[in-house]
Write a structure and sequence with these properties.
The chain is an alpha/beta fold and 148 residues long. The chain has two domains: 82 residues, Urease, subunit C, domain 1 (Roll), CATH 2.30.40; 47 residues, no CATH class. It has three helices and five strands. It has a five-stranded mixed β-sheet with strand order 1-5-2-3-4. A hairpin with a 2-residue loop joins β3 and β4. The longest helix is centred in the C-terminal third of the chain and has 19 residues. The two termini are 29 Å apart. Its cofactor is Zn(2+).
């Protein structure tokens, strides 16, 4: 299994693509990402990419360049400050995309505190589905949509 060196610390940096004070960002550090969407977790290992000394250039919220520092540092425009996170691991943001069938009607609904949201929206929706008699075999469209 591909493992980053033990001396690299993980850290959280805020979403650089959302910043607006300048339209170009340059970030240096160690990067770990997955280069391909996979169908099965055991496939992930074959698509891990680790760049020990990497560079990410973002222009107007979009990745303009990504790769090794040595190959890309000359592409940083003059006057752009490099955010140097050397020795730190930078990974893409993680998004929880799981869903439960009874929650389909509330996808994208206003987010409250988790327990409030569950009590106000999710649990009542689950009770309605339970009372309606919907069975697992009745939700083929849901499974097709999730697989798409």
């Amino acid at each position: 299994m591909l493992r980053p060196p033990g001396n690299i610390r993980f850290m959280v940096i805020r979403n650089l693509s959302m910043e607006r004070e300048q339209s170009i960002k340059a970030v240096r550090g160690s990067f770990l990402d997955i280069t391909r969407t996979v169908q099965h977790p055991e496939e992930i290992e074959g698509h891990l990419r680790f760049i020990k000394d990497g560079l990410l250039i973002i222009r107007d919220g979009r990745v303009e360049w990504f790769g090794n520092w040595e190959e890309g540092h000359h592409q940083i425009p003059d006057g752009i400050r490099v955010r140097d996170y050397s020795g730190k691991m930078i990974v893409p943001g993680f998004v929880d995309t799981h869903i439960h069938y009874p929650q389909c009607e509330m996808v994208g609904a206003y987010g409250e505190q988790l327990l409030d949201w569950l009590n106000k929206h999710t649990f009542p929706a689950e009770k309605r589905y339970k009372r309606s008699g919907i069975r697992p075999r009745d939700v083929g469209v849901f499974h097709q949509a999730v697989a798409a």
